[in-house]
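Quick log. Single chain, no ligands specified.
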Amino acid sequence: MRKKISAAIIGIGIVGVSVLSTGGASGHGYTDSPTSRQVYCANGTVKDCGEIQWEPQSVEGSKGFPARGPADGTICAGGNTRFRELDDPRAGQWPATKVTAGQSLGFRWKLTARHATTDFRYYLTKSGYDPTKPLTRADLESRPFLTVPYGGRVPDATVTHQGTLPADRTGKQLVLAVWTIADTGNAFYACSDVQF
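-> predicted structure:
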Protein backbone atom coordinates (compact mmCIF):
# COMPACT_ATOMS: atom_id res chain seq x y z
CA MET A 1 0.00 0.00 0.00
CA ARG A 2 2.81 2.38 0.92
CA LYS A 3 4.55 1.73 -2.43
CA LYS A 4 1.32 2.57 -4.32
CA ILE A 5 0.90 5.85 -2.41
CA SER A 6 4.56 6.76 -3.01
CA ALA A 7 4.21 5.96 -6.71
CA ALA A 8 1.05 8.09 -6.91
CA ILE A 9 2.77 11.03 -5.18
CA ILE A 10 5.77 10.79 -7.53
CA GLY A 11 3.42 10.61 -10.53
CA ILE A 12 1.51 13.69 -9.37
CA GLY A 13 4.81 15.49 -8.79
CA ILE A 14 6.02 14.72 -12.33
CA VAL A 15 2.73 15.92 -13.83
CA GLY A 16 2.92 19.08 -11.70
CA VAL A 17 6.47 19.85 -12.78
CA SER A 18 5.51 19.26 -16.43
CA VAL A 19 2.54 21.61 -16.17
CA LEU A 20 4.62 24.30 -14.46
CA SER A 21 7.40 23.98 -17.01
CA THR A 22 4.98 24.31 -19.90
CA GLY A 23 3.20 27.25 -18.27
CA GLY A 24 6.46 29.09 -17.74
CA ALA A 25 7.20 28.99 -21.45
CA SER A 26 3.87 30.55 -22.41
CA GLY A 27 5.28 34.09 -22.26
CA HIS A 28 7.14 35.29 -25.32
CA GLY A 29 7.40 38.96 -26.26
CA TYR A 30 5.92 42.41 -26.88
CA THR A 31 6.96 45.86 -28.03
CA ASP A 32 7.36 48.58 -25.45
CA SER A 33 8.71 51.32 -27.73
CA PRO A 34 6.70 52.79 -29.25
CA THR A 35 4.37 51.73 -26.45
CA SER A 36 2.06 48.91 -27.54
CA ARG A 37 -1.56 48.43 -26.59
CA GLN A 38 -0.64 45.42 -24.46
CA VAL A 39 1.82 47.53 -22.44
CA TYR A 40 -0.80 50.25 -21.87
CA CYS A 41 -3.08 47.52 -20.53
CA ALA A 42 -0.40 45.86 -18.41
CA ASN A 43 0.73 49.11 -16.77
CA GLY A 44 -2.85 50.21 -16.04
CA THR A 45 -2.91 53.27 -18.33
CA VAL A 46 -5.84 51.68 -20.17
CA LYS A 47 -8.52 49.92 -18.09
CA ASP A 48 -10.96 47.07 -18.85
CA CYS A 49 -8.37 45.07 -20.79
CA GLY A 50 -9.23 41.56 -19.65
CA GLU A 51 -6.49 38.91 -19.51
CA ILE A 52 -3.92 40.85 -21.56
CA GLN A 53 -3.15 43.02 -18.52
CA TRP A 54 -1.41 39.97 -16.99
CA GLU A 55 0.03 38.53 -20.22
CA PRO A 56 1.31 41.33 -22.48
CA GLN A 57 3.88 38.89 -23.91
CA SER A 58 1.32 36.30 -25.09
CA VAL A 59 -0.17 37.83 -28.27
CA GLU A 60 0.68 34.83 -30.43
CA GLY A 61 -1.07 33.78 -33.63
CA SER A 62 -0.47 32.07 -36.94
CA LYS A 63 2.48 33.35 -38.96
CA GLY A 64 2.57 34.34 -42.61
CA PHE A 65 1.13 37.85 -42.32
CA PRO A 66 -0.32 39.41 -44.45
CA ALA A 67 -1.11 36.42 -46.71
CA ARG A 68 -2.05 34.33 -43.66
CA GLY A 69 -2.25 34.97 -39.95
CA PRO A 70 -4.99 36.63 -37.89
CA ALA A 71 -8.27 37.53 -39.60
CA ASP A 72 -9.11 41.16 -40.28
CA GLY A 73 -10.48 42.82 -37.17
CA THR A 74 -8.46 40.46 -34.92
CA ILE A 75 -4.93 41.45 -35.93
CA CYS A 76 -3.90 43.38 -32.79
CA ALA A 77 -4.83 40.35 -30.66
CA GLY A 78 -3.04 37.97 -33.03
CA GLY A 79 -6.40 36.29 -33.72
CA ASN A 80 -6.53 35.27 -30.06
CA THR A 81 -10.05 35.76 -28.62
CA ARG A 82 -8.62 35.83 -25.07
CA PHE A 83 -7.11 39.22 -25.91
CA ARG A 84 -9.93 40.69 -28.04
CA GLU A 85 -9.76 43.94 -26.03
CA LEU A 86 -6.66 44.82 -28.09
CA ASP A 87 -8.81 44.86 -31.24
CA ASP A 88 -11.38 47.23 -29.72
CA PRO A 89 -10.60 50.64 -31.28
CA ARG A 90 -12.06 52.36 -28.18
CA ALA A 91 -13.48 55.12 -30.41
CA GLY A 92 -9.92 56.00 -31.48
CA GLN A 93 -8.91 56.84 -27.90
CA TRP A 94 -5.94 54.49 -27.41
CA PRO A 95 -2.97 56.52 -26.10
CA ALA A 96 -0.50 57.30 -28.88
CA THR A 97 3.24 57.91 -29.05
CA LYS A 98 4.06 61.25 -30.68
CA VAL A 99 6.21 60.84 -33.80
CA THR A 100 7.26 62.91 -36.81
CA ALA A 101 6.91 61.88 -40.43
CA GLY A 102 10.26 60.73 -41.82
CA GLN A 103 11.91 60.41 -38.41
CA SER A 104 14.23 57.59 -37.39
CA LEU A 105 12.63 55.61 -34.58
CA GLY A 106 13.71 52.69 -32.40
CA PHE A 107 11.31 49.73 -32.19
CA ARG A 108 12.06 47.76 -29.03
CA TRP A 109 10.89 44.23 -28.14
CA LYS A 110 11.04 42.66 -24.67
CA LEU A 111 11.32 38.89 -25.14
CA THR A 112 10.34 36.81 -22.12
CA ALA A 113 10.97 33.53 -23.98
CA ARG A 114 13.42 33.72 -26.87
CA HIS A 115 12.89 31.72 -30.07
CA ALA A 116 14.72 31.00 -33.31
CA THR A 117 13.56 33.88 -35.48
CA THR A 118 12.80 34.34 -39.17
CA ASP A 119 12.39 38.12 -38.98
CA PHE A 120 10.78 41.14 -37.39
CA ARG A 121 8.48 43.20 -39.63
CA TYR A 122 6.89 46.59 -39.12
CA TYR A 123 3.82 47.80 -41.01
CA LEU A 124 2.19 51.24 -40.94
CA THR A 125 -1.39 52.16 -41.68
CA LYS A 126 -2.16 54.00 -44.91
CA SER A 127 -3.15 57.65 -45.20
CA GLY A 128 -6.86 57.82 -44.48
CA TYR A 129 -6.73 55.16 -41.75
CA ASP A 130 -9.72 55.41 -39.40
CA PRO A 131 -8.57 54.72 -35.80
CA THR A 132 -12.21 54.30 -34.67
CA LYS A 133 -12.51 50.98 -36.54
CA PRO A 134 -10.83 47.57 -35.93
CA LEU A 135 -7.61 47.08 -37.91
CA THR A 136 -7.80 45.27 -41.26
CA ARG A 137 -5.22 44.39 -43.90
CA ALA A 138 -6.73 47.04 -46.18
CA ASP A 139 -5.76 49.65 -43.54
CA LEU A 140 -2.07 48.70 -43.75
CA GLU A 141 0.54 49.22 -46.41
CA SER A 142 1.00 45.86 -48.16
CA ARG A 143 4.75 45.88 -47.53
CA PRO A 144 6.49 46.52 -44.22
CA PHE A 145 8.43 49.79 -43.97
CA LEU A 146 11.07 47.89 -41.97
CA THR A 147 12.11 44.23 -42.11
CA VAL A 148 14.90 42.85 -39.93
CA PRO A 149 15.91 39.32 -41.06
CA TYR A 150 17.30 36.92 -38.46
CA GLY A 151 17.91 33.74 -40.47
CA GLY A 152 16.92 31.42 -37.60
CA ARG A 153 19.13 33.08 -34.96
CA VAL A 154 17.83 33.56 -31.42
CA PRO A 155 17.58 37.27 -30.48
CA ASP A 156 18.64 38.78 -27.17
CA ALA A 157 16.05 39.30 -24.41
CA THR A 158 15.73 42.94 -25.49
CA VAL A 159 16.15 43.95 -29.13
CA THR A 160 15.82 47.35 -30.78
CA HIS A 161 15.49 47.89 -34.51
CA GLN A 162 16.07 51.35 -35.95
CA GLY A 163 13.80 52.34 -38.82
CA THR A 164 12.60 55.41 -40.66
CA LEU A 165 8.92 56.24 -40.61
CA PRO A 166 7.34 57.11 -43.97
CA ALA A 167 7.44 60.85 -44.73
CA ASP A 168 3.86 61.12 -45.99
CA ARG A 169 1.75 60.45 -42.90
CA THR A 170 -0.29 62.79 -40.70
CA GLY A 171 -2.69 62.33 -37.80
CA LYS A 172 -3.26 59.18 -35.80
CA GLN A 173 -1.82 56.00 -37.32
CA LEU A 174 -0.91 52.52 -36.12
CA VAL A 175 2.30 50.48 -36.31
CA LEU A 176 1.86 46.71 -36.47
CA ALA A 177 4.97 44.82 -35.33
CA VAL A 178 5.23 41.12 -36.24
CA TRP A 179 7.90 38.80 -34.80
CA THR A 180 7.97 35.66 -36.98
CA ILE A 181 9.23 32.50 -35.27
CA ALA A 182 11.40 30.18 -37.39
CA ASP A 183 10.72 26.80 -35.78
CA THR A 184 6.95 26.99 -35.09
CA GLY A 185 3.88 27.95 -37.12
CA ASN A 186 3.38 31.13 -35.11
CA ALA A 187 4.30 34.79 -34.84
CA PHE A 188 3.83 37.46 -32.18
CA TYR A 189 1.83 40.62 -32.86
CA ALA A 190 1.89 44.07 -31.28
CA CYS A 191 -0.06 47.20 -32.21
CA SER A 192 1.28 50.62 -31.27
CA ASP A 193 -0.82 53.73 -31.86
CA VAL A 194 1.21 56.74 -33.02
CA GLN A 195 0.35 60.40 -33.54
CA PHE A 196 2.09 62.25 -36.38
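DSSP finds two helices and nine strands in the chain.
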